[in-house]
Automatic annotation (TrEMBL):
Homodimer. Interacts with FtsZ. Its main location: cytoplasm. The keyword Cell cycle applies. Residues 74-98 are annotated as: Disordered. PANTHER family: CELL DIVISION PROTEIN ZAPA. Activator of cell division through the inhibition of FtsZ GTPase activity, therefore promoting FtsZ assembly into bundles of protofilaments necessary for the formation of the division Z ring. It is recruited early at mid-cell but it is not essential for cell division. Keywords: Cell cycle, Cell division, Cytoplasm, Septation. The lineage of its organism: Bacteria, Pseudomonadati, Pseudomonadota, Alphaproteobacteria, Hyphomicrobiales. This is Cell division protein ZapA. InterPro entries: Cell_div_ZapA-like, Cell_div_ZapA-like_sf, Cell_div_ZapA_N. GO terms for biological process: cell division.
Amino acid sequence: MPQIVVTIDGKTYRMACAEGEEHHLEALAADVDGKIAELRKSFGEIGDLRLTVMAAIMASDQLHEARARIAELEAQRDADGASVKASEAGGESARRDFAQSLDETAASLEKIAAKLAAGVE
């Protein structure tokens, strides 16, 4: 199992990860480091533990918002899918009605043609 060293808030940590996940873990650590730096800039020296907890809450809030957005998009996708199915069903009905109308028009034209042919003879 690969091990990497990351730096968060000036402190280094050795971490293990799955093969091929090294860059992903480094990016996550950099994101946490950035959040802590942002909080430190905004609030000053308020304690390492407090900054870490605040950064974790910020990350959790972002995750919560992303999950809510995903659920919203999935619901919209499902509604759109139902709408498309209803539209397709309505389209099929319209095609059947149009075909029936064409059949009726063709039958009427055949009757007219037959009357004209009978009148000519």
